[in-house]
Specification:
single chain; about 220 residues; alpha+beta; six-stranded mixed beta sheet; globular
Length: about 220
């Protein structure tokens, strides 16, 4: 906790990211499960973004670039499953991590880097794209006579003192829904432990969900 308190006094986003990478979020070279992939600060595929409702609208949907994005490694799927997945996308080959399930956005809590409300908006953008990736699979699965599997995405907005956990889904009418489901005051030891347990639970769920994804791709 002493290191965390010091971080809050003299921090920027890079220091916040490095701290949580060391203590909470799994890293590929260290403790990330073999079936999972992570990218840091990389743009998500543009074709996963929703199209503007108004043709020639004077605005564009921002391409998400999460601080951390977790999904699945291509190498854990069979060649047939990968071919099926590629065929579902509108253009190009999907980049790793495939079928993302967790978006993480860091802020300093003060200064020009923005705050956790800005991070929440960024989480929403990454979550929309993540849900769309799985929605392609579910749509094809239903057409093939299968049943949809659960399509949700978790996201975390984190600074040196606070973390907000969001759960996103697509409702029965195709509308994006995002809800804050938990918050953590990270300067309290019991809250820090609970935050660590929460992140671990998300990764366990992602591993358990892999069987549903493989069965879906085999059915399509």
């Amino acid at each position: 906790l002493h290191e965390l308190e010091k971080l809050g006094l003299e921090c920027d986003e890079e220091r916040v990211a490095n701290f949580w990478a060391r203590h909470i979020f799994p890293q590929p070279e260290r403790d990330l499960a073999a079936e999972l992939a992570m990218k840091a600060g990389t743009h998500m595929d543009r074709y996963l973004l929703p199209l503007p409702r108004v043709p020639d609208a004077p605005f564009s949907v921002q391409q998400p670039r999460p601080d951390l994005l977790y999904g699945y490694l291509a190498g854990i799927f069979t060649m047939r499953q990968i071919s099926t997945l590629v065929s579902l996308y509108l253009e190009g080959t999907p980049r790793q991590p495939l079928l993302p399930f967790l978006v993480v956005e860091y802020k300093t809590g003060a200064g020009p880097g923005g705050n956790l409300w800005v991070a929440a908006n960024q989480c929403a953008g990454g979550s929309v794209a993540s849900l769309q990736a799985t929605a392609y699979v579910n749509t094809a699965l239903v057409r093939a006579g299968g049943r949809r599997f659960l399509n949700i995405c978790y996201s975390l907005a984190v600074d040196s003192h606070l973390a907000f956990l969001y759960l996103s889904r697509i409702d029965s009418k195709g509308r994006f829904k995002m809800q804050r489901v938990d918050s953590f005051f990270l300067l309290r030891s019991e809250e820090l432990v609970r935050f660590h347990q929460c992140v671990a639970t998300i990764f366990k769920w992602a591993g358990d969900r892999l069987g549903d994804i493989r069965r879906a791709l085999d059915t399509i």
